[in-house]
Design goal:
With 244 residues, this protein is mainly alpha-helical. It has helices at residues 5-16, 20-43, 51-79, 83-89, 93-128, 139-163, 166-186, 188-197, 199-202, 213-240. It is built from ten helices and no strands.
């Protein structure tokens, strides 16, 4: 009898904090959200102390660190040498991959929700300290913020699945977009296509209210290149790789 996917997802969620690296990443994400609020409260002008401002800035640490957590999740069986145990208990490797992806999406959404709560608390404190204290925020910014977290985490998981090596995948995740950005600035021909292929560019409008259909189309194309393609290739590699 196969293990239900929801139970597999809960197992993968627990495994995110099972290692010291995963646990500390989660702790650092939480501390990062608190730190961004403290920075705004301590140094930002009063007019910037709004709920929207705290929320936008609070998403930055998790957008950087969640992909690393996703990489560790995808490479865990191979770096921790637990692949034999995992795939003996759950022979269907696609189900394991699906559970990892579901767990990743859930942790990204949970991080967004926690950021919302911290932003509300920080805004109350900012109001008490004489800040603007405005609560109005465009609804699209909230779910677009969640989408940003999910996309970058899935990109990290895709790199982890493709390379199956934690250090290599982490370096590639941060280095390849940087190299692409340098090439885009130096080669004119690439500047024309960067608006469609550079995820750093196409995800920018997610921080602005009410993206247009054209912006979503460009985001979708870049996600195919940076998320879907490496994830498909990585899944194929996991399915075919011998377990030692």
């Amino acid at each position: 009898m196969s293990v239900p996917l929801p139970r597999l997802t809960l197992v993968e969620l627990r495994k995110l904090a099972d290692t010291r690296a995963g646990l500390w990443l989660l702790v650092l994400i939480g501390l990062g959200v608190v730190a961004t609020a403290a920075i705004l409260l301590g140094w930002a002008p009063d007019e910037e102390l709004t709920f929207a401002g705290f929320f936008a800035f609070g998403l930055v640490p998790s957008a950087v660190l969640l992909p690393v957590l996703g990489i560790l999740s995808m490479t865990g069986e191979w770096s921790q040498r637990t692949a034999l145990t995992t795939f003996a208990l759950v022979p269907s490797r696609l189900r394991v991959i699906a559970a990892k992806l579901a767990a990743g999406v859930l942790i990204a959404l949970a991080t967004t929700a926690v950021t919302l709560l911290f932003s509300a608390a920080a805004n109350l404190l900012g109001t008490a300290l004489g800040g603007d204290g405005a609560w109005r925020v465009d609804g699209s910014l909230i779910w677009q913020g969640a989408l940003t977290e999910v996309l970058f985490l899935l990109m990290g998981m895709a790199f982890g699945a493709l390379l199956l090596n934690s250090p290599l995948a982490i370096v590639a995740f941060f280095a390849l977009p940087t190299i692409w950005g340098i090439l885009r600035e130096t080669i004119k021909a690439l500047q024309r296509v960067s608006g469609w292929l550079d995820l750093g560019v196409t995800s920018g409008p997610l921080s602005e209210p009410s993206m247009t259909s054209g912006e979503y189309a460009r985001l979708a194309v870049s996600c195919l290149v940076w998320v879907a393609l490496p994830l498909v290739l990585g899944s194929w590699r996991i399915l075919r790789r011998e377990v030692a």
